[in-house]
Structures are given as structure tokens and as C-alpha cells.
Amino acid sequence: TTLPGSRFPLEGASDADIGANAQLSYTLSPSEHFTLDVKSFDENRKSLFLVLAKSLDRETIPVHRLVLTASDGGRPSLSGTMELVISVLDVNDNAPEFNQSLYKVQLPESAAVGTLVARVNATDPDEGSNKEFSYSILSSVPVAKRDLFTIDPKTGEIKLTSTLDFEDVRLHELQIEATDKGTPPLSGHCSVVLEVTDINDNAPIFRVDEEALSIAELSVPGSRFPLEGASDADIGANAQLSYTLSPSEYFSLDHQGSNDQSASLGLILTKSLDRETIPVHRLVLTASDGGRPSLSGTMELVISVLDANDNAPQFNQTVYKVKVLEGSELGTLLVTLSATDPDEGINSDITY
């Protein structure tokens, strides 16, 4: 950090002759960083100074080797030389520098605790304590997930300290700092972007465990009744859903469109209903995703068949034979008739 123009005294040469044979002149080998300044007090007394002409950079040229030549005024001229070995002392003028400003990493959300996320690497061209540095995690996005990661201050290895969750955070960004031990300390920075990839760790989920439907008994086969499908927190094939129905004698499924979660799901009546035979149908609707292995979720469909007045009252006998004494009083009970109607509600109320 020595400033240009700084002067450093040099010891001059001596010559055993006298007169012009002892009058000395000095020259310095070519250098863009140094020049020579000679001050003459008289013909035999001169002061030499090495002058810094240009700022030094130890990391570019740590040692300058110059040749100082003294020549006398004799004929022929005689000369002597001395080598100047100038060592540039280091100052902390270089911050640690990473070999990449951005590290991009992908890890599945199933990565175990202790998994190596990335190994960052920085270098410092200074020397001694000025080149010694340590790594640290300066910040993270999201901030609340900072504790998911740890970094080795010496090696720069970043590892997981907890499990990832794609459904919670899909992208983590860490700001890494390398700080040297110089005075004052200098720091370099880089970013690590971790993309969490999805695995099939979420089964399809229905909003309710049981859905109740009411369908008219006289509904025509082919009638469609909308159903609410399942949802899956994964993405891609892991969230593409297909459906099955069991048992399926009276009903089938209509899954319009692709297998994504926005597709329309409906229940199709395939066979005429008869409430008097089966008043309630209990079905199991299963949603399966496209992951490997596939995960599934279920919901029970409870279908109540709404009665239609499709049954006439029926007497328990078609003919009642009764014998009555001719002298029977008025109001005498002759016979009790009985009819039944398998319908329900007002459809089964009978008047005679």
C-alpha cells in the first residue's frame, strides 16, 4: 500500500581513483515501478534514492529484482553493479473469491439428514493470516428454513440438518459468505439455489370420508351425477389421478378430460334401480395417483334410492269367502281385508 513517490535511500558506490576517474554516475535497470533519484552535493558526494513510481501489487509481482550500476568518468569508463531485491509485503487487499457466483443444486425431498447439498470453494491470493478464511451461511430464503442447513467453516460443505418437503418449500436460496482473518477482514459472497424435486409421498385425499347421494328410483340408465374428486399435493405424474368404483353392478364412473385433478368426475347409472329390492347402495370410490409406487385414497358413497309410487297395493288374498248367518245383526264383523304396499311414505298409505 506504499504510495507512489515514496523514497528509499540507497548506499552509493566508492571508487579508489581520484578526479574524473572517481566521479560516479548511476543508472537503474528498466522498471515501470521504480526510478532512481540522485542528489549531488559536490562532485564526490551524491545521495541515492529509490523512488516508487507505480503502486505495487504483491499478488502480481511479489519480488522485484533490479540492477543498480555505478560508472566512473574515466576513459575508458569502469563500472560496478549491485542487485536490489525488493520484497513486497502483503496487506489484506483481496477478499476471498468464490469459483462460482451461483451454485445450482437439485435434491429429492426424500434426501436424508446429513446429505451433502453442495461444496462451495473460495480462494484468497493474499498470504499468511490474510488468506485464511472461514465459511458461513449469511442468510436464507425463506428465512424460517435457515436451520435446515449447516456449513463446515473450513471445507465449505453444506449439509442437510433436517428433512426437505417439496409441498412446503420448493426452492431454497442460501447466501454464503467467506471472511478472511486480515485486518480489517474482507468477505466474498456466493449464492446456493436448491431446487427440491417431488417424490410420490402424498396419497390422494378426498375432502370427506363419506358422501351421501339421493337418486330417484325412476332415474333412467345413463343419468350422470357429479362427484367431487380427490386432491393430491404432489405434482406431475405423482398427482395424476385415476378412479375405480366397487361394486359396480348399478353404477360406473365418467372421468372426463385428462387425469389431472381438475378433470370432471361423475357417477353414471348403468341399470334401473328398485328401491324395494335395494334401498341403499354402498360403494367405495378409490383414487390412485400415477406415482411409482402408486398411492391411493378412498371414499364411501352412500346412495339412497328415493321412492317412486311404482307399486300398487296388493291384498293378501284375491278372493275372500265368507259365511254369514241370515239372522246376523247389523254391524257384525264379516271379514277383515288386508292389503300391503311395498312403497314408502304416502306412496304406501292405503285407504279401502
From TrEMBL:
<dbReference type="GO" id="GO:0005886">
    <property type="term" value="C:plasma membrane"/>
</dbReference>
<keyword id="KW-0732">Signal</keyword>
<feature type="domain" description="Cadherin">
    <location>
        <begin position="316"/>
        <end position="352"/>
    </location>
</feature>
<feature type="domain" description="Cadherin">
    <location>
        <begin position="13"/>
        <end position="98"/>
    </location>
</feature>
<keyword id="KW-1133">Transmembrane helix</keyword>
<keyword id="KW-0130">Cell adhesion</keyword>
<dbReference type="InterPro" id="IPR020894">
    <property type="entry name" value="Cadherin_CS"/>
</dbReference>
<keyword id="KW-1003">Cell membrane</keyword>
<dbReference type="InterPro" id="IPR002126">
    <property type="entry name" value="Cadherin-like_dom"/>
</dbReference>
<keyword id="KW-0472">Membrane</keyword>
<dbReference type="Pfam" id="PF00028">
    <property type="entry name" value="Cadherin"/>
</dbReference>
<keyword id="KW-0325">Glycoprotein</keyword>
<dbReference type="InterPro" id="IPR015919">
    <property type="entry name" value="Cadherin-like_sf"/>
</dbReference>
<feature type="domain" description="Cadherin">
    <location>
        <begin position="207"/>
        <end position="315"/>
    </location>
</feature>
<feature type="domain" description="Cadherin">
    <location>
        <begin position="99"/>
        <end position="206"/>
    </location>
</feature>
<keyword id="KW-0106">Calcium</keyword>
<keyword id="KW-0812">Transmembrane</keyword>
<dbReference type="GO" id="GO:0005509">
    <property type="term" value="F:calcium ion binding"/>
</dbReference>
<dbReference type="GO" id="GO:0007156">
    <property type="term" value="P:homophilic cell adhesion via plasma membrane adhesion molecules"/>
</dbReference>
<dbReference type="InterPro" id="IPR050174">
    <property type="entry name" value="Protocadherin/Cadherin-CA"/>
</dbReference>
<keyword id="KW-0677">Repeat</keyword>
<protein>
    <submittedName>
        <fullName>PCDAD protein</fullName>
    </submittedName>
</protein>
